[in-house]
């Protein structure tokens, strides 16, 4: 558990380098990431290389007892390279070129660019293969950022045709799987398939979904090309990638080629971009579940402690608004990341940059080199982590405190995300917000959650929560049935079992292959605007529901009805059912519940599964377990208190947790109760 | 009066075909429409045809006592055809190609595509010319849907130049009629004219209006090409087209080549797309005037009973929201269509499709083949219509109940729509909503209305309502003057008589050629935002007005002032005038009235014209007359009651009409009074 | 001081010409502007000229005692010219051509178009060189209107490279000044630089800022080409240009080549386009500060009385809404323009045009040739100005009443505008609205203001107000320091001293080179949404602040804290400081103040500077001084009264000023007090 920083030695006069590195070490930092946009500095002209500045930086980092993380610089090829190979530029769906001028100006499927990528990666790998200060590598930078995951150029057209040939073998197989009989879309050859370019009417959803998969696979392939070169040069290096967008790229697939996943965490930015309405507290510190879902996803993706490769250090340049973060928030974010399973939290950037596109992005130091607010928080975080490691006892390899095995799996899947993005069927449906509704219900009860795809091994979990399991194959249905029969408690929600793996409706009524497991059919579904928000009676109490309603019909000797719509057109119609199957049971929620209803359903699920929980904490307070300790993080602007056992020992803070503060105790989570404010 | 369905035999295994057809017959259906997107199935490879599947479907339909409506498949040419003739694709105004991938991917002016169209149409016409089961044809499908009515490609450029040559003969004539002296737009030859492609500043309105006319004419010409081939093959076939968009295509012009018009009616979709705010009742059942205006337009367009070629069967895929329709709404829509003059109402589609772009569109059967909510309503509608036909006595030819002659004409015109779209002059002006304001005022009084262009024969009508008669020629002014002098009652509203036929201002002040008829000038006009909503005093009462105010100035010995603005800058200025001319009179309303003011003005007009009316019904209840019967349709979610004569006989229901229900009585409309709820 | 009109003789039959000109003279008009869109009439075919219609118009204007202002017709090249030289069309950043069809369809950097421009300008200059009726010229028309100031075509690419070569000499100099090390943007040659075309990520701000400067310079160069030809033909002609957009084009640079600046004033249009919320009064008459800022800018730009070349004559076609202007508003606008320093106010247009893009734009005459509301106001304005000139005594040259020397300079700069547009950092920051906040604070106290760039000579001003002086060089810092040391009172506001001349952050903390002058640093800045609106305590009173907060830190022995944030996260932190330097002092305001706080700070500044002020007038009333008279303009819909000395003489009106009216008195402004309404 340690703190790092992202450093751009190429941005500053070389004479400042040693003072900067010394100061990093003084601050308690252990890792320094470098080089991800420095291609033009590394190779100022075609074939002319200059690595001396980087050699020196690595060398100083080693001298001061830290380790370097290097990056391949492929996210920003120099202009001379683009001018030599203009075909590497991406194209929009309407044919417009995405020109040079920002970053990420290359197509993953350009053979020319793959060649250039190999060349520079090999050069770097070779140069640092024997350098003991270099701990490992980050490939490229934030694949897909700025909407660059999907490209519509001719190179992509060719690669897509190859990808389809590989997947379907015969074009008639594709015709059948996609269902091209609709609107005369039958294809006579793979050569007839283009990227889904601009059309007047909608594209075929099966074609779009395969294009989304192909696009993600293109990045996986491109990334693997780099990983292999780096591994070959030095197999003790770790290789990771810093994820940013969690939308267009399948993080599970990329992570399979990495030693661990890392991601770039900007709490006040994400929360503004990913939500409709944001509170002032969230503008100051972000939202713990908005953050936590990503922490848990990237931890689960590689089944390993993750890194926050870039941690917000203060005010930043890209969200609509950038209020100053709350006092201590930069420390809170680091400790909370560790609580959720991070090994290293690396602030971005060392020093505010005086030039270029990110001048309004703060650093640990201000532009004039004086410590900024983030610096003080980083020093505190480093010192706290040292202290906590000594209390908790670090792992054998010295790099990690263990996280507990999760009792609950939250199923999440990129195919589902993409398919639902293609057919959301209402402007108000958002896959991530639906998933987060259930994630929050678990986390407010202090449950430790793995975020895994439906293909994960489920047997180890006491309960499995599967929000909107949209695409379901017979195989998946069998897996889930076995899980429940074996005593698992499964929660499945609205819009599950709708489609097959090719984004076609199942022959059988929804939930398709899950019908016998769920013990009920979806008779009707409807999307509704806010003005039609409804009510569900569950367990004798009234709750709110919205966005999407399914009218459920239990099979004979099928599921038990546990919730019904109340007072609208669907008055009395089943909305929530539970079906006992083997030694377990499955609950199906056919609407989008308000947070209280999600909490009630999830609470009952956890009870049945025998998962230990706490009372529900308020939305801005989250309790985590790591290294045998209990971490209480307060993302609110006011203090909050917990009722803790009298003999609780506090490794950090105490039972009243200040604003944007963290307390750590040896008391068991289940022994803590939130005190009302 | 009968019920039909749209069927896609090519989407299902052939072995299911007979069971499906049998079930249709059992449900009481009489017509089955097929084939409109099946080109790739009919001609899987260039020149290789396969019609056997369609032969068999037609044959089964005949065997089970029904009749087939076939379609030309030209709305979705196969990919092989597009690859052979990439020039058939349309272009956006900015030059972007509208690529293959959805539907309607062809330009009406492509000679290559017209050749291909002729080929497939002749092939089909020839094959089914002697088949007694085929009742007639639908050409193509929903011309102009997805914004494809206007194309900006080079083929269109050439065709537009020819169209202009034909219209103007000499380029100097065009220069004068358009008024190209403005901004140096004088042309030296027709070859200098391009489609109105992307510019920095606005285009010349006269050029835009002619491009709109040209675009509509291109479709008329393209459609006629198909009609002629079909008529030549079998002159007993009817030929129709299913209109969808009522915006870019002149339905009157297309209908002139058809036996009758049909249209695709999706009540909960249209109401969301065509209005700003929608009530929950409208989300469940649509709005009767939003629907009725189209029913009456398409009935009037061919002066013949129309078909609803596609009738919404339940939840649908394309509006923002798709709540489940109200209980019985699918039956309500069918009966209401018949009440407004439909002969056949054909549900779209037989069965929910498992693949492609419309998986979220319901059918009479669900995807698994079980009856859905629409099926039950369709069966009821078929049975009700049988019953009503027996009560009312069907027409001699067995196909139609007569609709009464309308007492009132509502003038509507595409040239006006397009010209006002080019120069709306405020974001709040919407031609259709303005027309609908007056349509609703007529229909809430149970008046039967024809929706016709200003060129229609008006003498037969007791009253004529002309909302925003924007383009007025001397000839039209004379027609209207003769109508009024002959005893007609004419209502003309704001923004009338503004422009000549070329979208140029008249020399004379507004209302231009209508000045002496109206007996007043428009001194000033203004557009106003909501914050400037105003008041008009009419007949001693205060009403609201909005969006557009004209300050009227009666001529000496001209019109009488009947309404004045009150309390704003224009306080006391005439807003509404009436002018007695010959044996009739003309009323001019110089602002956008609220519904009460529209009702008061229209009520007075009808009184003067001696048109029989009812008291005003609430907005969700409409009374129609057909086949000697009075049809009361309730689009609301609550029951409503009418006060009817004691001896009224009820052919359907009774004097209390349930939610989404219809009652039919022999009582005269004028004998009915809505009871307050 | 006189009234003119814009006239299009080419739009009307030649037989009407004399009647029109006679009527202009009768109305008291003195100038007639013509010809700015008449290229196609002047040169109907390549090389064939027709100036007889224009000769005749000029001749008649002379006969009736008026003078003509002619225009080069280059804003709208004819279609034959575009077809001969299609390369003159501009391109969007995404490569889309801006086609022929509106106006301004040419690229300033097209050598072909410059050749054509020279040809037609020389032809015109030669023809009218000896014509005594022609007083002077307007070049082109509204450069940059419709977003045409910036073009992304290949001609511009080449010209941009030349411009950079000229500016930087060596590409390494450019690399250093821009800071291209960021994101591998280092350039090896000028040939590598393209216009900032469409990219996925943001462009480099330094590149964007130079492109903005280059684009403005391209117009300066293009305009100079015309000016030189005209000056050479007759050096007694004045040459001006009618500015419209005050955003993309540096008016100071263009004005340096002109005899005086003119601009096109549409009060009800500007106020809707440039503000978020508009009151009904503003919809009827505009806002006096929104107008006044432009009047003062264009007067200051050429340091000469300006013209309103186009004055709104009534309702107009281009804003969202066009309510009828308030009664007398067209006269109000003319008199207010004169009060702010206009010599000639020329209404646009003589007569509503029957054809083309501006049919919904009124004229002094209506389309039928009858006087419209604007005509009556224009006649009154002409007569009032005659009367006032006789009272005040006209200047020696008979053309101008002197305006007083301004006591206060408001610093304004296009580089700052552009740089802040590139990095606004919150959707709520608007440079012009921030400048106007301070302009209003000065003007509500009846202070006469020059609007000048920071490079202006400041010594003559008692106080200087510098809102958001974003880009600050050492040289500018020295200038401002000298000004303050010499006894000047300087007000600098938030976001000042942030960047160097190349849009790079300074090494030193903000306010960079202004630190020692201001005596404080900006410790932090933050952008905040409305929900975070805050409070500042200044002078013991609470005021509001919003959008942007800077946390100030006075240097030791530096500035005195005069305002502090209150009640938020920054509670108690300095928000406003004042620093005594030499004989003067500098105030720094680190947030966006509400109007009361701006007023309080500005009021204190004026007190210290000894500038004579009035009490604050309400926002719709403004007091100006010209020709030794005091002009009170009331932009409100209600009368307002002033308390004036008993012996005040009223040259126009009296101490109660009606709605949309103006009163003029010999009393000193400082002797007037607004009476509460
Ligand atoms: Zn590509
Ligand atoms: Zn076309
Ligand atoms: Zn250009």
TrEMBL record, chains A, B, C:
Pfam (any one): Glyco_hydro_42C
Ranges for domain Glycoside hydrolase family 42 N-terminal: 6-387
Keyword Membrane recorded: no
Catalysed reaction, written as an equation: Hydrolysis of terminal non-reducing beta-D-galactose residues in beta-D-galactosides
Record-listed E.C. numbers: 3.2.1.23
Domain Beta-galactosidase trimerisation stretches: 406-611
Coiled-coil boundaries: none
SUPFAM superfamilies: (Trans)glycosidases (SSF51445), Class I glutamine amidotransferase-like (SSF52317), Glycosyl hydrolase domain (SSF51011)
Single Gene Ontology MF annotation: metal ion binding
Keywords: Glycosidase, Hydrolase, Metal-binding, Zinc
Domain named Beta-galactosidase C-terminal: residues: 621-664
Family in the record: Belongs to the glycosyl hydrolase 42 family.
Name under which the protein is recorded: beta-galactosidase
Source organism: Halopelagius fulvigenes
